[in-house]
Structures are given as C-alpha cells and as structure tokens.
Prior knowledge:
alpha+beta, two-stranded antiparallel sheet, about 25% strand
Amino acid sequence: MFAVVSDCLKYALKHNYISIDDFYTTDTKLISKLEPFVEKDSHFKKLWERMHGHFSVKQDLNSRRIFCKSRVVDPLVLDDKEIKRFSDIETNWKKIVEKEIEPREYFLSILDTKEF
C-alpha cells in the first residue's frame, strides 16, 4: 500500500497538482486538492483508484522491489520489581522477535482491478 500511495503522490507532485507544502496540511486538505484531477487525467485516475484499494499484486522477481518493515512488539514489563523486555523473560517470544524483526523483501507487480 505504501508503494501505491507513493506512486500517486509522486505523480501529483511532478504534475503540480500538489506542492511539498501541501504535505504539511491535513490529509483532508491534501486529498481535496487532488480530487479535481481524477477525471481530468486518466493516468492519475488509475493511480488514484489504486490508492483507494482498487488493485491486486502478484509476485514477480522481475518487478518492483518493496520492503515492509517489521511490526513486531517487544514491550517492557515489570518482572519481580524490575523492568525488562518481555523477550528477556520469555525465550519463545525472543525467538519470534529475532525472526520477525528483519524487514521483509518482496518483488511485486501491481495489477489494476481490470487485470485480475
């Protein structure tokens, strides 16, 4: 999803539909600046529709390289009046954290709704 949103916003910046300053406003204001261009620019409309979830992906080693950072959580906990990481107490969780902390790398082709 990050790649799809990035594509749309980069295109909008390149075509002066928005400016860098617009990123320092609210999401609502930014989106309202983009909406008038959806029906005027067919390529932008495709990117806009993707940004709104109208896409699918397929794995393709010759396609776009996308990294997804980990969302694993290793909270601080109180253990016998001492604050520790949960993974320092629970060895099974430590193994999970060590495995899941690395970013995942994918090679994905983004497909429009008409293609899947």
